[in-house]
Amino acid sequence: MRTSFFSRSAAGLVWVVLSAAPAGAQIFESVGTRAQGMGGAFVAVADDATASWWNPAGLASGATLNILYEHGRITEPTETSGLVPASQTTPNSFAAAFPAMGVSYYRLRISQLRPLASVVTPLAVRQDLLTGGVALRALAYSQFGATVGQSLGRHLVVGSTAKLVRAGAAVGTALPGTDALEAANDLDVPQTRRADLDLGVMGMFGRLKAGLSVKNVIAPDFGAEAGGFKLERQARAGVAFLSPGRQSSQGYTLSFDADLTRNPTIFGDVRHIATGGEAWLGSHVGVRGGFTSNTVGEHRPAWSAGLSFALSKGVYVDISRVWGTDETLRAWSTTVRLAF
Question: What pTM was computed for the model?
Answer without folding.
Answer: 0.87
